[in-house]
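Before going further, learn to read the protein records used in this course. The integers have meaning only within a learned vocabulary of local backbone shapes. The record below shows the convention in full.
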Amino acid sequence: MRVCVIGTGYVGLVTGACLAHVGHDVICVDNNEEKVKIMKSGQSPIFEPGLSEIMQNAIKNGKIQFTTDLAAGVTHGEILFIAVGTPPLSSGESDTRYVEAVARGIGSHLNGGYKVIVNKSTVPIGSGDWVRMIVLDGIAERQKTLVSAGSGVSTPEQLSEITAEFDVVSNPEFLREGSAVYDTFNPDRIVLGSNNSRAVEMMKQLYAPIVERQFAEDKSLEPVPVLVTDLSSAEMIKYAANAFLATKISFINEVANICDRVGADVTQVAKGIGLDSRIGNKFLNAGIGWGGSCFPKDVSALVHTADDYGYEAQLLKAAVSVNERQRLIALEKLQHALKILKGKTVGLLGLTFKPDTDDMRDAPALNLIEQLNRLGAKVKAYDPIISQTGMRHGLSGVVVETDAERLADGCDALVLVTEWQQFSNLDYAKMAKLMNNPVIIDGRNFLDPETMVRAGFQYEGIGR
């Protein structure tokens, strides 16, 4: 099938590259010329395991193109994905101006033939009908422009020839940064929100290779469940899923804080409750809180939507409150171990909000850097991606080192912020000897306490 993906962030680029990999003809559109040049060369502008290889194969096979020309993409695609960002505003609601601009642009370029316009961006509930309205506005503006330009188009019959038949589908993404390619080919489910059977059938045809597990890690599994809902329910599913996962993490963090006070080990508690099939063991890792581009934005947007409709989402607000406090747990533990932080040097192991990504959006490390600077500490950091690529993401108040041993040298304490797999194999005994005061705060309960003690560290976990 012919596909156009508008927006090449984490969601758009992964979606476009993976659909090209399964055999569709894809054009990815972005208004950033430099970014398009990078992608045309076969390089991914974001760090995502496996993505560059898939892009390069798709380019070689002639299955994917990159352009800044929205008109070319709209003309090409039978299915048009809107995958631009919807960053949070200070109020907590989503900023939908990029979605609006794209929808209007699509309308201004639609010309004959049936199209399915897919909301892949995480958009407020009710956006399906709103996008349809904006696309129609774009079509109307185009008609008005043609009439005023004296193009000879003026009668209703002539105007009907430049309109278009389309439907809007909500197709939320459930990709995890760091494993987005894997998640695309091995999804738990595919959600399609639409009231039009023709649009749904086209989407099922698009996803058939993935539904049938042709590119899955385990091809023997049953087909991927495809859930067809109305537009609003599909939009709500995305928000509800992320809000539930964020709440689950806040719950285990609250349990961890109680464990710290009563002498229990939250890792054992999490294992015990995770064996209950009603609970499950995922997202029960206590630490210094959740961050990134999805959880904070989606929970806040759902709270804002509830407020708009006269309902106070108390549980979700509590999950956010617990998470905000949790980010200060490592600071409290540092103060307990070092007392006064002014004049001390603290090293951060990891900067990104999770491993296997270069994403610093709403990362707990940023809060730590800010608070440590406020208290007069010198902050150093080492991150396998940020340190090596030079992508500093506007970081200030922190010295970014090129390896873990340089980080440890002269530090009074270390804080493990991101559980990069590489951090399990560091020479901690050597690092301890390089430090002024070998204290380590394991903000992800990633390290083995006994191993760290043998290496010469005073070890502090979260809820351990």
Observations:
- The chain has three domains: 2-229, 238-325, 327-460.
- The mean pLDDT is 93.
